C-alpha cells in the first residue's frame, strides 16, 4: 500500500464523529451531575472557546488557499464571539472573579456573543462564491464586538437581560427571537448557495445552524441560570460548535488532503504515459506541428505538416521553414519572429502562403510560440500550421457577394432615377460589366419583334448585321457559358468573330414578355461564374426590366398627358373685352397628367364665365375626374350661369359620382362685359385677387366646402364691380403653398408680385409669378401650379 492510500485510509468515519459527539455530551451531563453546574458551564464555554479559536487559526492561516470567503467570515465572527464568551464565563455568579456581578452581566455578555454569531451567519453567505478581505472582516467584527462591550462596561447603556428573582427580561427574550430569526436567514442563505459547498459541508453547516437556533430557543425559556433549559441550551451549543468545527476541518484540511494525495497517486502513472501520448499526438494531429531552433532550422515536424507543405517527410528536411514561405509573406513573419524572440509578444498567428513542391501555393494559418528555459533563455519555437484554402475561398466569395449586392443596389438606384431607355442601357452595361469584371457588354432591346443594340461598352467593334440575340432567350433565366467555343447554345461564328470566350446572357423579361437582353463578355480567357455572380445577374435583370417597363409606361402616360393637358387646359385665343394670360407648371414630369384645370368661355350675350379648379390626386384617375368636373361645370353654366347655382348643381352631380376620398376645389365666376360686374363663388378654393391701379384689394369672399364633400351644400356668391384695366388673377393652391424650408410663398407675396409688375400686362404677371415661385422653392414645387390672369378692358 502506498503512502497516500495509507493516509487516506486513516480518515474518521461519520459514525465515529457521531459517537464522539454523543460521548462528549454524555460526559458533560455527568460533569453537571457530579461537579455541579458551574463546572459544567465552565467546561462547555471553554470547549466552545477552544473550538472557535481552533476554527479561526485554521481558516486564518489557510485563507489564501480558499476560493471563497464563507468559512473565513464565519470563523472570524465566531472567534470574536468566543472572546466575549470568555468574559461571559468569568463573570458567571459563583466563579468569584467578579464578585459584585449579578446574573445580569453574563446574560448581557451572552447576548453580545450571540449577536456576533448571528451576524456572522447572515453575512458569510455573501462570500459563498467569492473571496473576502480577511483584514476587513477581522477589523469589522472586532470593532463591532468592542463597541458592544463598551455599552456594558464603559457607558452602561446596554439594557438589562436578567433580573434576579424575576428571570429573563423582555429585552433578553426578544433579542433571542431576533437572533433566532437572523440565524434562520443565515440557514436560508446557505441553502440558496448550497451548490457552492461540498454536500457533506453543506449538511454540517445546516445542522450547526439548526442546533444554534435550537440552543437559542432553549435560552428563551429558562428562568434560572442554573436550570434545565439553560443546561439544554449549553449542550446544544456544544453540538453547534462541534458541527462547525467539522465543516471547517472538512473544507480546509480533509478535502485538500484527499485532493493532494489523489493527485500524487496518479502523478507517477501520468508521467510515465506523457511521452507516449506526446509522440502519438504529435504524429497523428490534424494540424501541422513543428519544433524549430533559434537559427530557423527544423528540429522535428510531423507528417501532417509535410503533407500541408506538399513534400514527402524526408524531402522537407532539406528546406528551411522560411524557404517554403511565399516571398511576399516572409517579411511580415520575420518581424513577428523578432518580436517573439525579444519578448515583445508571447505568440502570433498569421495567415500566409506556402510554396509546395510543384510550385503551387496553399493558404495556411501559422501560429508560433517560444519555449524558454528556466533561466529565461530562448530554447526553440513551437509552430503549428493549418490549411485554410476552403476558408479563404469562402471569405473571398462572401466579399464578392457583398460587393455585387452593393453594386446591384447602386445600379438599381441609378436606373430608377431615369426614364430614358438609352441611359438605362448605358448605366446597366457599364456598371454591370465593371462589377462582374467583364471586359465588354452589349445591351439589346426588342420592340414589336425587332431587336436593336441600345448600348455597347468596350466591345471590340460594332456587331453589324446582328438581327437578334446571340443565343436562344427562353423565359427570364440567365444563360452562363464559361467557354463559348465549346457551347452549342451560342452562335459559334459570332463568338469566334468577336473572340467571345465566356459570356453571361441576362434576359430582361417581365410578366412573360422579353424586353431585351444584356451580354457581359470575357474576351481574354474562359471564365467560371460563381454563385454570387449569377445571383447578381438575376437581380440586375429584374431591375433593368422594371426600369424599361417603367420607362415605356411613362412614355405612354406622357402621350396621354399631352392630349389631356391640351383639353383640360384649353383657353380661347381671344375674348372680346378681356386680355387673358395663363400658365401651368407640373410638380414633376410624371404628374403632367395633373388635377388642375381652367377655362374661360361665353355663357350668354356679353357674359363671360371663368373657372379654375384642382382635383385631389394625380395621374390618369385624377385626370378622368378633372375632365368630368370641367365638363360638368361648363354644362350647368350654360343652363344658368349664376356662380352659386353652377357650384350647387355641379356639387350635387359630382357627389353622386366620386368616392369619399376624392374632392374638387374650384373658383367659378362671371363677368358682365357691359357693366363690369364680377360675380364669383368659391368651393374650397383660394379666391381670386382683384387688382386696380397696381393695388390688390382684399375682398372677403367666403370659401365653402369643396365639390363632392357634402351633397347638400349651399353656395353664395360675391359681387364686385370692375373698373377699366382691373386685373383678376386666379391661381391654384400649388402657388401659395410652394415652400422654402418652413416658409410658404403665400398670398401676400402673390399680391406684392402682381402690384410690382401689373404695368407689364397679364402675361408679365403670370410669367413673373412662375419665375418667383420657382426661385422660392428651388425649382422643386410639391404641387402643380396653375395661374390665369385677366385684364378687364372696359365696358363695351
Sum this structure up briefly.
The protein is α+β, with helices and mostly antiparallel strands and 796 residues long.
What is the number of E strands? Answer: 25
- Extract low-pLDDT stretches: 1-9, 259-264
Rg value = 52 Å
Percent strand equals 15-25%
Overview of this protein structure:
This protein has 4 domains: 25-259, Up-down Bundle (Rhopdopsin 7-helix transmembrane proteins), CATH 1.20.1070; 285-387, Beta-Lactamase (2-Layer Sandwich), CATH 3.30.450.20; 400-559, Beta-Lactamase (2-Layer Sandwich), CATH 3.30.450; 569-792, PPM-type phosphatase domain (Phosphatase 2c, domain 1, 4-Layer Sandwich). It contains 21 helices and 25 strands. Strands 14, 15, 16, 17, 20 and 21 form a 6-stranded mixed beta sheet that branches. Strands 4-3-7-6-5 form a 5-stranded antiparallel beta sheet, sandwiched between helices. Strand 16 and strand 17 form a beta hairpin. The chain is flat and about 145 Å long. The model is unreliable at 1-9 and 259-264 (pLDDT under 50).
List the helices and strands and how they pair.
Elements: H1 3-8, H2 14-35, H3 37-61, H4 70-90, H5 104-123, H6 134-153, E1 162-163, E2 167-168, H7 170-192, H8 199-219, H9 228-284, E3 288-293, E4 298-301, H10 303-309, H11 313-316, H12 327-342, E5 347-355, E6 361-372, E7 378-387, H13 389-416, H14 421-436, E8 440-447, E9 450-457, E10 479-481, H15 492-497, E11 502-510, E12 513-522, H16 531-568, E13 578-585, E14 596-604, E15 607-615, H17 619-639, H18 643-655, E16 664-672, E17 677-683, E18 689-692, E19 695-697, E20 703-704, E21 718-721, E22 727-731, H19 733-736, E23 739-740, E24 743-744, H20 746-757, H21 761-777, E25 785-792
Parallel strand pairs: 17-20
Antiparallel strand pairs: 1-2, 3-4, 3-7, 5-6, 6-7, 8-9, 8-12, 10-11, 11-12, 13-25, 14-15, 15-16, 16-17, 17-21, 18-19, 18-22, 22-25, 23-24
Helix pairs in contact: 2-3, 2-9, 3-4, 3-9, 4-5, 4-6, 5-6, 5-7, 7-8, 8-9, 13-14, 13-16, 14-16, 16-17, 17-18, 20-21
